[in-house]
Design goal:
- It is built from 13 helices and 28 strands.
- It is of the alpha+beta class and 488 residues long.
- A 7-stranded mixed sheet has the order 18-17-12-13-14-28-19.
- The protein has 3 domains: 152 residues, Nucleotidyltransferase, domain 5 (2-Layer Sandwich), CATH 3.30.420; 78 residues, Actin, Chain A, domain 4 (Alpha-Beta Complex), CATH 3.90.640; 116 residues, Substrate Binding Domain Of DNAk, Chain A, domain 1 (Sandwich).
Length: 488
Amino acid sequence: MENVTAGIDFGTTNSSIIVLKNGVHRYGDSENETLPSVVAINKENGRVICGKDALSLLEKEDNDFEVFRSIKSVLDDRDKTFEIANKIWTPEDIAEQIFIKLKQTVYERSNREYNVNKAVVAIPVNFSPEKRRILRRAAERAGIEVKSFITESTAAFIANYKSTKGSTITVVFDWGGGTLDVSVIEYNHGTISELATRGKKFAGNDIDEKIARKLHSITEDKYKLHLNFDDLSDAVQNRMLRRCESAKIQLSENECAKTFPIKYGDYGQIQIDGNIISRTWLSNLLEEDINKISECLMESLRIAKQNIYNVDKIILTGGSCKLKTIQDKMVSKYGKDKIIIPQDSSWDVTLGAAILSCVDYDIQIGTKVSLVLHDGSECPILTENTFLPYRKKYCFGILDTTKQARFVFGGDPDINRLEDKYRVLDVKCENFLEEQIILDVYIDEDLMFIAKANSNFYIYNNPENAYTVFEYPHLKFKYRIDLDHVKY
């Protein structure tokens, strides 16, 4: 058995893992299908099922299992705990099971040849500090050391680099099941620079629900059900959501979806007319939402100080970009020559993470962080092009009788847009002779900017609880990696 490093896409809807070892080895529910990010736990004995088998249990009325989907979206919810089979489960515990399943799948399908002990894990651009820490712990509990995180859209760019060869500015439009991530990326002389990143939480799951609610409204009117969608049992709602997802996928290839039956609880079997669900119907249903997510692309360009004429290519990746509606919208708005639609976009993010997992590269900072001084000027404490790892300490003196020192952070436009309470670090001080405020700044293993500060008086007397902390997770990075010579 050989220890290997892999790329992992821990998705809201689907997860997958790729090992680059004498070729590309993809592992999900099957070689061609990703693993649904669904975990089912038996209420009596605690037995765990993951993937498609767990997903199918969502449709059962009388279920011996507690079933969890989209656990990634509630990773940092401290109030979410579940008592199952005499054990308290947290979102971290459930996320761990998905990592265990991915690791086990590689081991079994490689004929016990590969043991994944390290991985580069792709995350959304707006992933919070707490979610990063929890995801890292969940992976490590499953026996996988997180070598690094990478944003999903940057990973997708790496996977599709060959299609963009010769381009300088590329926009990655990564629209999956749980999130939309947009990155404006410059590739120049072996350096990938994240010029801007933006994200929205409207994605495939939301589309499925929107279709389901609309179809329920039509069905309710036709059959006089007098029943709101929210009043349906969880099993009926989940049946409808899965059928609507299937119909949506059919529209990637066909003009209309197939008619499908659905068991409507006490109302029995009801036929949902697939002829209703056409590309035109779906386009009209999603028109407002498509306009909003298209605006996310333009907002990213504004932040990157680029215009659409400077953009060489736009990569449409992620499961939701298979929708003809979004493809037609992008081609109509930006021109066919700019648009790249990968053949197998469900695996792009995982492949990009896998490539990063097995090559040498350096990371530089692409974000400036400063302290805002009392007169509005700025004192830089983190500058662009600084190489990782990075750590530096600053000492500040006390000039008056204040009992509180206040650090206000700025520099990057995204930091400047934060509300004051999210960009201020308050530090208690005593105005003693020779008292200093120590500011410790660094980039941690989860690629977050951390600033810890306190008086040297408190650090000396109470070192365990000395520091107050400012965290900023939305840094942009530059990856120095020669993609022209990557082989796998």
